[in-house]
């Protein structure tokens, strides 16, 4: 356990070094956030009767999404792991007396957390000073804020466990780009990365809410904004926990199969 | 030009060595377009229209931008890798060769996998043209062609500016994404649905409105006077390549090797 924790710390401190990149990222994310909010506003103006998520909720959702991009976007993948798998360096990693799944899991969490910490505060603080309807609102209540914090942690675990599956599938192909893009895009859409889930038609969201994708960013953000009321929030968090456990177990199982048949291609 | 064709065929051959991988990548790339299309469909499904534009009208806008972006990306992605070319000193080698630097940089990477994206863009484009309810005249077809041409030039210039900035910063600048990928996202819809300053910004600073908005108004019969002006407005976007090229030239002159 201690060794995985130190992997986490090394990566975390390493991630905190890239401050200039983080500030550039903040500017970019700010622009994207603005763009999305403006877009949804014009949709809302055009047909106010069809609103299924009120405007302040939407703005907070978008700002949370932009500031925690590093935590919840499945495309934040660790290139080093892909490199090590396709170049065969993974053999060294397997020689270590450590569980490879746990090690990668810890590293990935660390990268995401360090990036998110650098980026989220400037965005959220600045966004909360914006004019009405564009601004980042406070949490619905103190309870929902606390549940939000718990949900963010579990949501991150779900995302990392999903990404682990992407790494593991790379063992089976030489070039991972195709599988990677397909899995990333699917997750992005069903997690509400492109359009917030409540804006999708109900016949789809019925199922999506039960899927692991909704457990990624949808649950924490909507607990924060009050879209998921406190009494239902506990249920959603349990569902998140369920998916986190399932994805981790599936990942460990496939990885143990993959390692048995891994062929290191010289080099 | 012959040199570029040579590069082109080498890349094509190298890609074709791994056919399955190529196919999977192309499919993966296509998913991006597919999912943006679906999300747009669902938004219109819920709201019906945006500022009076219907789904099929916006689709025309969406598909022209995706077309031009996919085309520009296919050929201009060499610029994307440019920060690596500078930081590992490869640009010294490029400078030594008695050939045009731009062609060599572009030739360093040609992304055939973007073909997936391009195919989908074409499909949506055809669908958009058929369903948008525009009566096609010679003038309109000409305008549409100009729009795509202008779009390709515009995105290509943006990639070039991105690379030219690397001369000064060595690292690529992430915020340029606002103009390339962000430009693509934002221009999926007619620009006047956003705030006024967005339209102004994309008219006077980055001439995106000239490919996405002004000629588009002519296509869907929203202009009554000065139609000629609206028709030829994409030409402004084509001229955007001039300042981009100048910046590149300044960059080359300013270039100092990183020495590694």
Explain how this protein is built.
The complex is a heterodimer of chains A (267) and B (260). Chain A is mainly alpha-helical and 267 residues long. Chain A has one domain (2-261). Chain A is 72% helix and 0% strand. Chain A is globular. Chain A starts with a helix and ends in a 7-residue tail after the last helix. In chain B, helix 2 (19-47) packs parallel to helix 7, helix 3 packs across helix 8 and helix 8 (138-169) packs parallel to helix 15. Chain B has 260 residues and is mainly α. Chains A and B meet through helix 2 and helix 9 of A and helix 2 and helix 9 of B.
Q: What's the layout of helices and strands?
A:
The complex is a heterodimer of chains A (267) and B (260).
Chain A: H1 2-16, H2 19-46, H3 55-67, H4 69-72, H5 79-87, H6 90-95, H7 100-127, H8 142-170, H9 177-190, H10 202-208, H11 218-225, H12 230-260
Chain B: H1 2-16, H2 19-47, H3 55-76, H4 82-87, H5 90-96, H6 101-107, H7 115-131, H8 138-169, H9 181-186, H10 196-204, H11 209-212, H12 214-219, H13 227-232, H14 234-239, H15 241-254
How many domains, in number, for the residues of chain A? 1
Rounded Rg of chain B: 19 Å
Strand content bin of chain A:
under 5%
Q: Give unreliable regions of chain A as ranges.
A: none
End-to-end CA span of chain B = 30 Å
Question: How does the overall form of chain A come out from the CA principal axes?
Answer: globular
How much of the sequence of chain B is in beta strands?
Answer: under 5%
Number of helices of chain A: 12
| Gross geometry of chain B | globular
Overall mean confidence score, pLDDT of chain A: 86
Tell me the helix content of chain A: over 70%
Low-confidence stretches of chain B: none
Ends of chain A: how far apart? 32 Å
Number of strands of chain A: 0
Sheet of most strands of chain A? none
| Largest sheet, strands/sense/barrel of chain B | none
């Amino acid at each position: 356990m201690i060794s995985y924790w130190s992997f986490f710390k090394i990566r975390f401190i390493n991630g905190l070094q890239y401050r200039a990149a983080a500030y550039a990222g903040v500017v970019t994310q700010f622009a994207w956030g603005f763009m999305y909010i403006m877009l949804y506003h014009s949709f809302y103006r055009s047909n106010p009767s069809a609103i299924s998520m009120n405007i302040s909720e939407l703005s907070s959702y978008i700002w949370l999404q932009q500031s925690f991009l590093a935590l919840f976007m499945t495309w934040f993948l660790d290139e080093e792991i892909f490199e090590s798998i396709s170049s065969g360096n993974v053999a060294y990693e397997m020689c270590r007396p450590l569980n490879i799944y746990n090690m990668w899991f810890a590293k990935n969490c660390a990268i995401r957390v360090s990036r998110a910490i650098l980026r989220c505060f400037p965005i959220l603080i600045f966004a909360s000073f914006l004019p009405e309807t564009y601004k980042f609102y406070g949490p619905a209540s103190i309870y929902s804020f606390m549940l939000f914090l718990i949900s963010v942690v579990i949501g991150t675990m779900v995302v990392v466990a999903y990404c682990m599956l992407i790494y593991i599938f790379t063992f089976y192909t030489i070039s991972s780009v195709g599988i990677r893009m397909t899995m990333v895009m699917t997750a992005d859409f069903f997690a509400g990365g492109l359009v917030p889930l409540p804006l999708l038609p109900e016949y789809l969201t019925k199922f999506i809410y039960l899927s692991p994708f909704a457990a990624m960013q949808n649950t924490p953000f909507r607990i924060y904004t009050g879209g998921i009321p406190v009494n239902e929030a506990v249920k959603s968090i349990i569902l998140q926990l369920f998916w986190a456990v399932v994805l981790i177990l599936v990942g460990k199982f496939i990885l143990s199969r993959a390692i048995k048949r891994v062929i290191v291609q010289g080099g | 030009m012959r040199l570029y064709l040579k590069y082109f065929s080498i890349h094509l051959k190298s890609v074709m060595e791994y056919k399955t991988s190529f196919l999977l990548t192309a499919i993966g790339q296509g998913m991006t377009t597919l999912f943006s299309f679906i999300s747009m469909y669902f938004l219109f499904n819920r709201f019906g229209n945006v500022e009076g534009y219907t789904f099929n009208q916006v689709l025309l806008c969406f598909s022209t931008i995706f077309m031009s972006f996919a085309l520009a990306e296919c050929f201009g992605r060499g610029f994307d890798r440019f920060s690596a070319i500078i930081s590992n000193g490869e640009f010294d080698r490029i400078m030594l060769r008695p050939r045009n630097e731009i062609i060599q940089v572009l030739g360093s990477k040609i992304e055939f996998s973007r073909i997936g994206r391009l195919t989908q863009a074409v499909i949506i484009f055809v669908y958009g043209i058929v369903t948008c309810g525009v009566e096609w005249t010679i003038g309109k077809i000409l305008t549409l062609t100009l729009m795509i041409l202008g779009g390709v030039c515009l995105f290509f210039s943006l990639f070039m500016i991105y690379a030219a900035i690397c001369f000064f910063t060595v690292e690529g600048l992430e915020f340029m994404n606002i103009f390339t990928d962000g430009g693509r996202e934002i221009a999926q819809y007619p620009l006047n649905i956003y705030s006024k300053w967005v339209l102004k910004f994309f008219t006077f600073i980055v001439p995106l409105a000239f490919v996405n908005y002004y000629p588009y108004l002519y296509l869907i019969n929203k202009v009554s006077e000065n139609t000629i002006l609206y028709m030829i407005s994409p030409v402004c976007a084509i001229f955007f390549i001039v300042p981009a090229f100048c910046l590149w030239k300044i960059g080359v002159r300013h270039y100092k090797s990183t020495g590694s």
